[in-house]
Amino acid sequence: MSERPKEHASKACEVQASVGSNPTATASRTRQDAGEVRQDRPGVRRPVPVPVCAHAVTPPIPSSDPVTRALHDLADDVRRQPAAVLRAEREDPDRWRVDPVAGSGLSVEWDDDGERWIAVGVGDHQSSVLRDVEAVAYVRDIVVAAIRGTITEVRAPGRAQIRIPRPDGAIVRDTGHRFPLGLIPLPGWERRATPVEHPAYEQLSQSE
């Protein structure tokens, strides 16, 4: 995915994070072809800088845009979870990253371009969803699943798939492909690959 230019510098702020209730957005909002190497779509998954602010707060919401407000509500909900850390860009309130307090668990990032797409990163898997309130519900489900340790992942040469449980019991399968091996058909690779499970954030904290 090509990078979306930013006009301001990045400063990371680290805060404690909490998970609220799961929404019920439909899985059809995800772009199944938005994988690791799509170069022709807006939106970008960006790593968040490491420097930390000890007393970070959510920046004020500049408009009444419902998507922006829903994303800030998600950040506020995540903030109170003791097993997770929320990192936010001070200069760009639309970029966030969630990591476990301890250990090397599965991270989740989202980047709202403010116009058409929300880029989502789960570990090293990247995708984009159409920017609306249902997309925020999907991002929330990903964050909740990562914290609870219910996301699974399968890999094969040039491709990877993450499986995300939704509140209604459905499993979203988001597949990404990497050039050039991802262009080679591998029928049935999802069934043959061994699923990789990621531990819950709380479990990582207790093991430290």
Overall shape: it is: globular
Q: How many β strands by DSSP?
A: 10
Q: What is the makeup of the main sheet?
A: 6 strands, antiparallel
Strand order of the biggest β-sheet? 1-2-3-4-5-6
Q: What is the percent of helical residues?
A: 10-25%
Q: Could you characterize what this model shows?
A:
The chain has one domain (12-207). A hairpin with a 4-residue loop joins strand 4 and strand 5. It is globular and about 45 Å long. The protein has helices spanning 66-79, 133-148, 189-192, 201-207, and strands spanning 12-16, 84-89, 95-100, 108-112, 117-122, 125-130, 152-156, 159-165, 171-177, 196-197. Helix 1 (66-79) runs parallel beside helix 2. The strands form two sheets. It has a six-stranded antiparallel β-sheet. It has four helices and ten strands, in the order E-H-E-E-E-E-E-H-E-E-E-H-E-H. With 208 residues, the chain is α+β, with helices and mostly antiparallel strands.
SSE map:
Layout: E1 12-16, H1 66-79, E2 84-89, E3 95-100, E4 108-112, E5 117-122, E6 125-130, H2 133-148, E7 152-156, E8 159-165, E9 171-177, H3 189-192, E10 196-197, H4 201-207
Antiparallel strand pairs: 1-2, 2-3, 3-4, 4-5, 5-6, 7-8, 7-10, 8-9
Would you summarize the structure shown here?
Helix content is about 20%, strand content about 25%. It has one domain (about 10-205). With about 210 residues, it is α+β, with helices and mostly antiparallel strands.
